Amino acid sequence: TMGMTVGPMLGPVFGGLLDESYGWQGGFYLMVGLGVVVLVASLFNLHETNHKRTSSGGLSGLWRNYRSLGRHKLFWAYALTAMFTSSVYFAYLGGAPFIAAQKFGMGPAEMGLYFMFVAVGYIVGNGISGRFAARVGVLKMVVVGSALPAIAIVALIIDAGFGLAHPLALFLPMFMIGLGNGICLPSAVSGAVSVKPELAGAASGLSGSLQIGLGAFTSALVAWLLSDAMWPASIWPMVTVMALGTVGAYSCVFAAIALERRA
């Protein structure tokens, strides 16, 4: 996962440069080119690894697996923790470009450089997870990782109270959000897929869909709230949505703690 983070870290930088050089279409041209390369490489090098497939798959089998997972409260506790923790990042992603452009007058290239803070934080958080998760345990990693976005939100509130005088006041807390996601998400997903190991694939897919689903909604919601018709250049709608995501994450963390103790 640390390696996968290199893309999101460099993507905004290249995207900003392409936007300034070729317009907003520049990033899409690069995406098409890279997509073709990945498709061709996959066709020739990505072979089937599941040699024990049965005929019980398909949509009906997937639905049965999801129903089985749905009966386990501990799965939902971990999966929803990952979902809400991710939503904090996506809310920031939907709002920060508006605020950076309207309040600080930042261009796409400069904005892309500042967005590297989240990727660096995520890389560090993933490194911490790889080194300590097996020793410390899944639940403690989730607790610590879920707390760090809350610290970032408090920092944003304090910065907003002083008027967000510098772009770092907006982007530096993003390091804490990335760090928290890097620490929390691997353990939260691990906890979700370990509830029923025989359904690990379905659990991973469902928890991932929940993360991306709520993330897409929160990102669009914050972008709409910060549009010209609503509250342009105001940080408070973004902070509010982020705070709600943190509250949701920690509510699920407390549920996971209670369920683990009961077990």
Please describe what this structure looks like:
82% of the residues lie in helices and 0% in strands. The protein has a single domain (73-262), classed as MFS general substrate transporter like domains (Growth Hormone, Chain: A), CATH 1.20.1250. The protein is built from 11 helices and no strands. With 263 residues, it is mainly alpha-helical. The longest helix has 32 residues, at 73-104. α4 (73-104) packs antiparallel against α9 (173-194) and α6 (116-136) crosses α9. The mean pLDDT is 86. It is globular, with a radius of gyration of 20 Å. It has helices spanning 6-22, 25-45, 58-70, 73-104, 108-114, 116-136, 138-161, 167-171, 173-194, 200-225, 236-262.
Summarize the structure.
The protein has 263 residues and is mainly alpha-helical. The chain has helices at 6-22, 25-45, 58-70, 73-104, 108-114, 116-136, 138-161, 167-171, 173-194, 200-225, 236-262.
> In terms of structural class, how would the helical and strand content be classed?
mainly alpha
Overall radius of gyration: 20 Å
* Number of domain modules: 1
Work out the number of β strands: 0
Largest sheet: none
Uncertain runs? none
Estimate the global geometry from the Cα principal axes: globular
CATH superfamily: MFS general substrate transporter like domains
Mean pLDDT: 86
- Report how far apart the termini are: 30 Å
Secondary-structure element order, N to C: HHHHHHHHHHH
Q: Can you tell me the CATH architecture?
A: Up-down Bundle
CATH class assignment: Mainly Alpha
How many helices does DSSP assign?
A: 11
CATH topology: Growth Hormone, Chain: A
